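Sat 14:20. Reprocessing the chain from the morning session after the first attempt stalled halfway. Input below, unchanged.
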Amino acid sequence: MSFRACWLLLFCFMAGWPSARAESTLPAPDIHAQIDAAPTRGLFYAVHRGTRTAYLFGTIHVGRPDFFPLERRATEALADSSTLAVELDATQAETMRAAMRRHALLPDGETLGARLSPALRTRLAAQLDALGMPQRSIRAYKPWMAALTLTLAGVQQSGFDGAYATDGYLIGLARGLHKPVVELESADEQLGLFDTLPRTDQTAFLDEALRSLENGKLADDTRALVSAWLAGDARALERLAAVSLDENPRSGPWMQQKLFVERNYRMAERIERLLADGQSPFVAVGALHLVGPNGLPALLAARGYRVVNLYPASRTTKETR
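Finished this time. Tokens:
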């Protein structure tokens, strides 16, 4: 699995985990002025059938403080909705830790280093030092979890932090509005997907994550995705995802099927159940779940819902620094 695949997960997986912070960082006296001045960011759809409406908001799982607040239409849509539905509520710390123990940690007595070649161990140690991470911090992780952890640390070093994930912001806002927060997936579902990878693929995943840190490509690729999200550029997001998968003949088909297609179909079914139960949910999921023929807007439209793009005119994507 190449690093581009690992990097892609920032939009389709890891909903603010492991550093989600569900709180609003907005200074209260300026809140209305900030909301009115905020540009559109991300992707935003309304889904209608009969008297019921759901909203789909495409998030980014890393961010910066200046990405907030969201603009007024999105903020008011959440306020008018009955429920916030997210991929995963990563603020449930004990649930996350339990899933980690089940899926991401090596058996007792085993260490990550023992599963790696001497050359890979040397490269891993060098990147941990460069990121300021103690080697003991990942010694009990399976290789795929080490790769994700290094990627998040590298993204943070580039100026984008999981603590400012859009999902975490919306969870904090929903709780401030006394809205229930429901999950479309579980921590076991998400982490379990990677736990099924063969050991050789897990090691290749880690190797490519290290290579991306070594050659400096992480920052460029991250900026491209973030810039497309800030501009609400669905075509650019879809194109970036396609390039990542096409460059990955070994793992690309697995990622496309397991991380996008199958998850999107499951989430569409769960959104339908929320509507059938009489709810009007505001659904916040990674932006890449909303693009392409297998994205949630297309899937729900195929099921007879009327889907309206609320951000139809994307701005030209500019590089974010």
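The chain has 13 helices and six strands.
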